[in-house]
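Sanity check

After download, print the first record. It should look like this:
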Amino acid sequence: MLIMIGGLPVIHRLQSDGDLKYDPMKKKKSAEEDKKRNGRHKSASSSALRGAAKNVKAYAVSFVPQRVSGRTALGFMEFLRAVQPRRAALAEGNLYGNLYAYAKHRERVTRQDGYIEDQENYSDLRYGSVTVSYAGCEVIAVANVLNALRRAGLIGDEMDRELPHLLYSFEMNGKLLEGRFGTSPGALRDYMKYCGFETWLCTDPKIFPIVAGMSDVLILTCYNDEKNLLKEVHTFCISKEDGYRTHNAYNRGKAGYRYERFEDLLRSLNGGLAKPICLVGVRAAGKSAAAPESDAGSLNRKEKDM
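Expected structure tokens:
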């Protein structure tokens, strides 16, 4: 085709019909490619956000067990205990149901030398608004402490109370958030004081062995995993029978191994994952046992919080 520009002839070749024809498939493919590119960018952005959220969550769940002191954690539990309303009607209703349900556990407890080693089997007993299998470990620890003292001949049978009655006592004074957070270790110490025992409540792991040496039986509260708060907290009894032995700890229905040194027991808990929060030491009244000289006598005072 001849085109005149400025009076001069210029030959211009038009594109072929095929080049000029509108191709909807080509446009669709281009749109799909754009969508894929945008999708890849969004996917990469979403992955980055998920990764950041995961890191924040990991830091948050590890912060408390790794950075918050045992004294602070105990103080928080005591605050929850103080603001927990006492619901006598609920506690009495649970008591009647628990007395009936506990009857089928009594024979197994007898076979286990009077210790409760299988908390997971107590879903038929209630504690506050939850089951004993879910949050009854602290009260079970007290039942096991009393049994250990009885077996050692330090108390009579009249002081060895069964689990349903102990649950009632701590429902009235000790449970946290209607039982969903278990029981404050401070309430366990107070109960032992009420029963007439000498007690120590310690939050410094460096002096745990000193408290252990002074006590007849112990109650240890710890994080199940020092790097993950979501693994929750567990409390259990430690008896002194030819060394130190855990009850209802991490042995799936069996008493724990015996350890000559308390430090070895601490290192072994939950495969080495657990981290202590606080230790309650209990000693039968009337016994005299001075604190080790290395402690300069600072622990040789009754009912001292450390």
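If your output differs, re-run the checksum step. Summary of this record's structure: Confidence is low (pLDDT under 50) at residues 10-18, 288-303.
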